Amino acid sequence: MSILEVSGLHVDIPTENGTVHAVKDVSFDVAEGEFFGIVGESGSGKSVLVQSVMGLIPKAVTTGSVRFQGDDLLTLPSERLRRLRGKEISMIFQDPLSSLHPQYTVGWQIVEQIRAHEKVSRQAAKARAIELLRKVHIADAASRFDAYPHQFSGGMRQRVMIAMSLSLDPKLIIADEPTTALDSTVQAQILQLLGEMKDDFGATVLMISHDLGVMASVANRVMVMYHGEQVELGRSAQVLRTPREQYTISLIESSSFTQSERQAPLGRTAAATDAPADDPAPIAQVSEVSLSFAQRRGAERTVLDRISLDVRRGETLGLVGESGCGKTTLARTIAGLVRPSEGTVRFDGRDLAEVRGADWRRLRQRVQVVFQDPFSSLNPKRRIGSIVEDPLRIHRVGNARQRRERVLELLEQVGLDPAHYNRFPAQFSGGQRQRIGIARAIALNPDLVILDEPVSALDVTVQAQVLQLLDDLQRDLGLTYLFISHDLAVVRHMCDRIAVMENGRIIELDDAETIYRTPREPFTKKLLAASFLEAVGTSGQGTTLQEVSA
């Protein structure tokens, strides 16, 4: 029996540049208890489709029918649809920070969702919220209940969103790229949790993903989308192993590249030659840095613990570890955005604690950051042309005409249509927003670029393009990269050296091939094992984590 039936769905979105036909005549059904997957490139209409199912695109013109347990969601009164959201149908959004209110603790937000739909005491709702945080593997859940969204890593914020979506035991869970920001070990835990909800509570899961390996491992059936149209639909084993359509074949070939060919380092020998291991003047130096954050009730949480690290000129240094281990906090400390509690951070030989006034302005031009969460770093009320132009305008580079030409060039470089110069961030997919962030970061040709999960939101066909772009820019402009990622295949492909973090400490640091071939630490071996399982997700071999670790 079908819990969701979509028939002849069209979604048209009016824009200043004309109407975007985001979804075109799509039909499918989702059976009760099924794990149904939707795959396709960024901008293919996946997110628009599921958001229209939830009635979350107010200006869109939607035709066709979307029946949930017999009721057409497109014609339901707004109050009835509001009651369905959360209680009967829940949604895990791709961008957790924009879905969590920055002024309220995560625990309060989960409690309010529960009490909005159920008549329970605040104490009972709090107990349920803490248990949900434990289920999604947030350590010390009782104390983190009172933490704010900005005090969590990107991956941990996604786990909070998953906990919130599960809080009312919904019949249908719509998950829009729920594991995009998560490292491979936590990704497996979240997928297992969604599977448990399906099996233990009879929930149905409709999941969007650009990761074909993930989809092959969890989905019963898969629908492939391209430019708003349904390309292929069938059992996941058939669609992902013996596809009929050329577009599906191209997606799988791109996925195969990301899982195998990219594991060989890309042009790293030249960079290592330019920056030998005994370079006496690294571009950035971290010495005995520790950082603790004050929490409520006087407690402190140590995020960085006596870290020492050099970033050599011209190299790409990879930083890997599980979500919440302190990777992003360390990167922000190196960029001068966070001041350490102890220790020193030097850029080009100068202690950042001594930098003042105009020197900070010059430093900002030399160090740029691509953030993990692109939407939260893009002003939703400004057009992307203006956003990308900001660094040029702030640092008084060229005149207005020259800056516009540079912005159009940057948009094309990162794979965006320059004609979209006047669009707003909300008019782009998650992967496209990430490319906007990359364009802004490279606008000034900086010395050091900190890349915080720069391709985590991109589908497999775009990942290779962006990684090649970053490599070309490094070679042509002499850039240095600090590359943060939970995808170890990407890190091996891009990096000269790799630093492994666990619980706020660097536990292993060596050249990329040594880390991959002869890791010393048990935690590093665990990360590599989980990464291997992700890479063979479409092979059907049934390899277990224990077998790989052995």
TrEMBL record:
Entry keyword annotation includes 4Fe-4S: no
Chain ranges of the ABC transporter domain: 4-252, 286-528
Residues forming coiled coils: none
Keyword entries, A-Z: ATP-binding, Nucleotide-binding, Transport
Biased composition regions of type Low complexity, renumbered to the chain: 269-280
PROSITE patterns: ABC_TRANSPORTER_1, ABC_TRANSPORTER_2
Keyword field contains Nucleotidyltransferase: no
InterPro entries in the record: AAA+_ATPase, ABC_transp_ATP-bind, ABC_transporter-like_ATP-bd, ABC_transporter-like_CS, P-loop_NTPase
Pfam families, sorted: ABC_tran
Region (Disordered): 261-280
A single BP term in Gene Ontology: transmembrane transport
One GO MF term: ATP hydrolysis activity
Superkingdom, taxonomy of origin: Bacteria
Family stated for the protein in its record: Belongs to the ABC transporter superfamily.
PANTHER family: D,D-DIPEPTIDE TRANSPORT ATP-BINDING PROTEIN DDPF-RELATED, TRANSPORT ATP-BINDING PROTEIN
UniProt protein name: ABC transporter ATP-binding protein
